[in-house]
Amino acid sequence: MEQPSLLDQVKKYASSYADEQIGDQYVFHSKEHFAEAVKAARDLAESYNLSNEDVEDLQIAMWFHDLGYSGGWEGHESRSMELAEAFLKDAGEPQERI
Fold first, then answer.
1. pTM of the full structure
2. Which residues of the chain register pLDDT less than 50?
3. 75: buried, middle or exposed (CB in 10 Å: 19+, 13-18, 0-12)?
4. What 3-state DSSP class applies to 3?
5. What is the SS3 assignment for 23?
6. Residue by residue, what is the 3-state secondary structure of 31-78?
Protein backbone atom coordinates (compact mmCIF):
# COMPACT_ATOMS: atom_id res chain seq x y z
CA MET A 1 0.00 0.00 0.00
CA GLU A 2 1.30 3.41 -0.98
CA GLN A 3 1.88 5.95 1.79
CA PRO A 4 -0.23 9.11 1.49
CA SER A 5 1.56 12.20 0.21
CA LEU A 6 2.73 14.81 2.70
CA LEU A 7 -0.04 17.12 1.51
CA ASP A 8 -2.66 14.41 2.08
CA GLN A 9 -1.27 13.78 5.56
CA VAL A 10 -1.41 17.50 6.36
CA LYS A 11 -4.98 17.79 5.07
CA LYS A 12 -6.11 14.86 7.22
CA TYR A 13 -4.33 16.20 10.31
CA ALA A 14 -5.55 19.78 9.90
CA SER A 15 -9.14 18.74 9.18
CA SER A 16 -9.28 16.49 12.23
CA TYR A 17 -7.55 19.07 14.40
CA ALA A 18 -9.97 21.81 13.32
CA ASP A 19 -12.97 19.57 14.03
CA GLU A 20 -11.72 18.51 17.45
CA GLN A 21 -9.83 21.53 18.78
CA ILE A 22 -11.29 24.76 17.40
CA GLY A 23 -14.39 25.94 19.18
CA ASP A 24 -17.67 26.63 17.43
CA GLN A 25 -17.36 30.32 18.30
CA TYR A 26 -14.77 30.62 15.51
CA VAL A 27 -17.23 29.97 12.70
CA PHE A 28 -14.83 31.23 10.04
CA HIS A 29 -12.04 28.88 11.12
CA SER A 30 -13.52 25.50 10.27
CA LYS A 31 -12.07 22.79 8.05
CA GLU A 32 -14.19 24.26 5.23
CA HIS A 33 -12.40 27.60 5.71
CA PHE A 34 -9.04 25.86 5.50
CA ALA A 35 -10.02 23.95 2.34
CA GLU A 36 -11.21 27.18 0.69
CA ALA A 37 -8.01 28.99 1.68
CA VAL A 38 -5.88 26.14 0.32
CA LYS A 39 -7.73 26.15 -2.99
CA ALA A 40 -7.41 29.94 -3.34
CA ALA A 41 -3.69 29.81 -2.54
CA ARG A 42 -3.11 26.93 -4.97
CA ASP A 43 -4.97 28.73 -7.76
CA LEU A 44 -3.02 31.92 -7.13
CA ALA A 45 0.32 30.09 -6.91
CA GLU A 46 -0.30 28.21 -10.14
CA SER A 47 -1.08 31.47 -11.93
CA TYR A 48 2.46 32.59 -11.01
CA ASN A 49 4.01 29.39 -12.38
CA LEU A 50 5.64 28.47 -9.08
CA SER A 51 7.46 25.17 -8.78
CA ASN A 52 5.47 22.15 -7.65
CA GLU A 53 7.32 22.15 -4.32
CA ASP A 54 6.55 25.84 -3.74
CA VAL A 55 2.87 25.25 -4.53
CA GLU A 56 2.82 22.32 -2.11
CA ASP A 57 4.58 24.35 0.59
CA LEU A 58 2.05 27.13 0.20
CA GLN A 59 -0.83 24.66 0.49
CA ILE A 60 0.72 23.14 3.61
CA ALA A 61 1.07 26.60 5.13
CA MET A 62 -2.58 27.34 4.39
CA TRP A 63 -3.75 24.13 6.08
CA PHE A 64 -1.93 25.22 9.24
CA HIS A 65 -2.43 29.00 9.06
CA ASP A 66 -5.25 29.28 11.64
CA LEU A 67 -5.07 26.01 13.57
CA GLY A 68 -3.70 28.03 16.48
CA TYR A 69 -7.23 29.29 17.09
CA SER A 70 -7.52 26.19 19.27
CA GLY A 71 -5.99 28.34 22.03
CA GLY A 72 -7.99 31.48 21.23
CA TRP A 73 -7.46 34.27 18.75
CA GLU A 74 -4.65 36.03 20.58
CA GLY A 75 -1.32 34.56 19.54
CA HIS A 76 -2.93 32.07 17.17
CA GLU A 77 -0.35 32.75 14.46
CA SER A 78 2.52 31.60 16.69
CA ARG A 79 0.61 28.52 17.81
CA SER A 80 -0.18 27.73 14.17
CA MET A 81 3.53 27.90 13.31
CA GLU A 82 4.40 25.66 16.25
CA LEU A 83 1.83 23.07 15.16
CA ALA A 84 3.17 23.12 11.60
CA GLU A 85 6.78 22.83 12.75
CA ALA A 86 6.03 19.89 15.05
CA PHE A 87 4.03 18.08 12.37
CA LEU A 88 6.65 18.57 9.67
CA LYS A 89 9.47 17.47 11.99
CA ASP A 90 7.51 14.34 12.91
CA ALA A 91 6.95 13.71 9.19
CA GLY A 92 10.73 13.79 8.66
CA GLU A 93 10.85 16.94 6.57
CA PRO A 94 14.24 18.65 6.36
CA GLN A 95 14.73 21.76 8.51
CA GLU A 96 15.25 23.99 5.46
CA ARG A 97 11.74 23.12 4.27
CA ILE A 98 10.23 23.78 7.68
1. 0.87
2. none
3. exposed
4. coil
5. coil
6. HHHHHHHHHHHHHHHHHCCCCHHHHHHHHHHHHHCCHHHHHCCCCHHH
